[in-house]
Amino acid sequence: MTQDLDFDTLTIHAGAAPDPATGARQTPIYQTTSYQFRDADHAARLFNLQEVGYIYSRLTNPTIAALQSRVAMLEGGAGAVCCSSGHAAQILALFPLMGPGKNIVASTRLYGGTVTQFSHTIRRFGWSARFVDMDDPQALEAAIDDDTRAIFCESISNPGGYVTDIPAVAKVADAAGIPLIVDNTLATPYLCKPIEMGATLVVHSLTKFMTGNGTVTGGVVVDSGKFDWSASDKFPSLSAPEPAYHGLKFHETFGALAFTFHGIAIGLRDLGMTMNPQGAHYTLMGIETLGLRMPRHVENALKVAEWLEQDPRVESVTYAGLASSPWNATAKRLYPKGAGSLFTFSIKGGYDAAVKLVDGLELFSHVANLGDARSLVIHSASTTHRQLTEDQQRAAGAAPEVVRLSIGIENADDLIADLDQALAKAAG
Ligand SMILES: *Cc1c(COP(=O)(O)O)cnc(C)c1O
Question: Ligand 1: does its nearest atom lie under 6 Å from the Cβ of 63?
């Protein structure tokens, strides 16, 4: 198709033509591990990456390929690689860039699980992370050294719902000659397109708003295709002969698709964090309604946040969509369709009141998830951010008196009534 299709059209059509074998109009679940080669020469060409096709579902699968193509088009990227979870996507994104002794500079305001992954687990690979406040470009610049291979931030950050000035961060990354990786889970490409703002790579937990109904664990890495991996000797996996693929030079051979091919041919092949075709199918169906769901999420979140903010039992609300938020001007400038539907509020009465509130809610589900059609609540300090020190909890916006809400697409007045009765129980 030659015309530029609108976002809402892409959510339904991108990557999903009728099935060439049967004409099936919905993308079939290709529940197969392997694909028959036409002959020995075809097999050899596939293994040499001289021809694109299907070999084995750890690497590629038609249902997953449809999803990869859809997310890449929605984000405005050159290519995408799906994987088993959002956390897997982070490793898959870093893997071609990093090596022992190399570091990333990451935002202090990140999903708690990501802080743990970056603080501890990646050290097993000899990688490390430095955490800086992304609102301070000078601190960011100062944290970068010769061994820094990427900057990592979230567009809208979990759990506080703060927003990142992506163009300002991208400017620092460009000056340092390193890629900017943006976790776009909370915004989705409906609210934010990091690549248009200068990001090199976008990662998602597809588990959240993209699938949108709490059914799938999945992740994706989208590559803008715009980074020059050969401009320095910092990224030998992409620019130099790759020993893990008989000396293939990925950037020279695949150009804008170098990162995507590396992610499949080396990342999925050797790390094995593959998505399953069923999961890809559910996510494809979820994305079909992304353009309908996100405006309702945002509208409800604003109503609930405004109601909470004026309630005397509430200390403060973090939502960047509120006029009182220090991030409101950035949100209006860079996220004009809204600041998402995840935010926190501090309850008067500290840890004990927060726990009572969570137990008192009836419509909100107390779960460790977000981005569901259902409204969800969690007390981060006793759950998702439990592994962090209190200083880290406060820096991440998950202090003991803080409760996190993920506002769903129910009726906003019903959600407010539920919060009202639970606040009464918590204060009592
Ligand atoms: C949930 C989440 C992740 C991790 O994703 P999983 O699919 O649970 O592995 C990463 N980043 C953000 C912002 C998240 O909300």
Answer: no
